[in-house]
Amino acid sequence: MADYLVIVESPAKAKTIERYLGKKYKVKASMGHVIDLPKSQMGVNVEEGYKPKYITIRGKGDILKDLKKSAKKAKQVFLAADPDREGEAIAWHLAHALNVDENSKCRVVFNEITKDAIKESFKNPRTIDTDLVDAQQARRVLDRLVGYNISPLLWKKVKKGLSAGRVQSVALKMIIDREKEINQFTPEEYWSIEANFQKGKEDFEGAFYGIDGKKLEIKSESEVKEVLNKLVDKQFKIDKVIKKERKRNPAQPFTTSSLQQEAARKLNFRAKKTMMIAQQLYEGIDLGKAAGGITGLITYMRTDSTRISDTAKNEAKEYVEEKYGTEYLSASKKEKKNENIQDAHEAIRPTSVMREPSTLKPILSRDQLRLYKLIWERFVASQMAPAILDTMTVQLINNNVEFRSTGSKVKFKGFMKVYVEGTDDNKKVEDKLLPNLEEGMMIDAKEITPNQHFTQPPPRYTEARLVKTMEELGIGRPSTYAPTLDTIQRRGYVTLDNKRFMPTELGSIVVDLLREFFPEIIDAEFTAKMENDLDSIEDGKVEWVNIIDDFYSDFQKRLTVAEEEMEKIEIKDEPAGIDCENCGHEMVYKMGRYGKFLACSNFPDCRNTKPILKEIGVTCPKCKEGNVVERKSKKRRVFYGCDQFPECDFVSWDKPIARPCPKCESLLVEKKSKKETQIVCTNCDYEENSQG
What we know:
- The protein is an alpha+beta fold.
- The protein has 5 domains: 4-128, Rossmann fold (3-Layer(aba) Sandwich); 142-184 and 459-565, Topoisomerase I, domain 2 (Orthogonal Bundle); 189-249 and 387-454, Topoisomerase I, domain 3 (Distorted Sandwich); 256-382, Topoisomerase I, domain 4 (Orthogonal Bundle); 572-612, no CATH class.
- A hairpin with a 7-residue loop joins strand 23 (614-619) and strand 24 (627-632).
């Protein structure tokens, strides 16, 4: 029997760590929490100082029994759950269940699952951090007091299956408020005047700036005409040429939030998928015996810190110097610290920068490799020198009417040799060169073109944009972003349309009720302050019970008012205008987990349901009788199929076009990429570009 028992959360980690520690150690997995609040009841005794009622989680009895048996035989038990609040709480519960003294040095934490990190952590065990445990316990109790009081109220007054939460309700309100902004938005007209200038055989673009040295915004066609009437011919004098050298610094290494945002932009990953794959890379991948077996490839993926250990910095420095040269090394810089950041552990980085993504191609799955490559490149770039750009601004004058043209060229790539941060609009940084221009030169304008524009409403939230905004407002913490987004979708409060959140009628009803009866629950400032108050428990500055009591005394009063005054809302099913083919009753629109669907109004006697099919105006190319409709796969991916299914099995991932190929008369489809949309033939080599 082994001398020491080590308890981690997952079996994948258990195997790896046991191999690193040797024969004297037996490593077992708790499979996450084994003890928690009951699901069937609130589990918080308000009268006894908000005392939590903990029970063994259903289905975890055998696991706990086995751990108790192993603990009795071991000389010492080490609790090695994840290095965060949840992990500390798991360790605390296990210590109590296994009769391990929480004041003994039984707690082991590590930020990466590598041999050196594991061995070092076991040299420095510590006691369980009760402040961390209290911080987790306070959040758990607070969420129960909110969720288990408001949710039953919503079931009674609206419909079953609804929920409200401390973070999810604020996120939902943000989506609904944005939708209101869009609906209430009034476009305003404005104009731009673009010019195509020519110097010898070279062309360059410029735009109207102002008159008499003052910037001027043009808001109507009449103002455009006034500007154009002032121009004398089409000859401009170069009044000023401003040349500058500009530095561009690399992005910092990933936090949980920035990883989710960048994976959405560059890899098209949902937040939930990003965290699932990151977990796999953290817990370990089998690299083969020669490369050390199962090894953690990245550091812990739930973090809001951009801090990097000196060891990792030095390794990155060696790599950059050897691979790219001394000039690509970053000068040492002090890291900025945001007041919302807990800085509990490092940023997300590769456990070894020497493990290049290309060497892992035969081992990792496609998605694992793409995410690892993103993390590896971001980290390496963060430790490299800034890029240097030569910029040039040219002021061109014609009768006191000023046009400006700007250009830039990368003089020294620096970190851009490895990685450039993505943007929400997917714009790439490209050289925009200007000819060799000097002050006093006369330049001809080949074309001067006025363009009418209208201001656009703010964009709907994508997952990445919502996570970014939540982080900026101080709402939620790294471990809550992905679950929050998942919850508001599962409850039917929002749907995703073209990867952007749209609120449902149900979501709007819930927020309106919360706005009336529990305004603090959906208030971003209140929620951010509450997060900071909860963090102060972690720092040992305040008792967790006091924080809960301050909140609950007012909340309880609001709850009493809501139970008495909240009116029952009946969500009527919208008639679909068609009859059920099974029983003849009217079909209605209903709201489900994935949005609206068709159901028979004679439910439960008739359980006929159908998806809402969106026609695209194309006759089925296979059966020639049905129409092609937009459908969604189980993973919510859009595809196209015949509405006569199952009689006709035509399907296509690409959107069919309502005209035949001019070359062979076969089916044309749209193929979309981030850069452009192409129309291609499914039979021959015909293709044409569409607008991007």
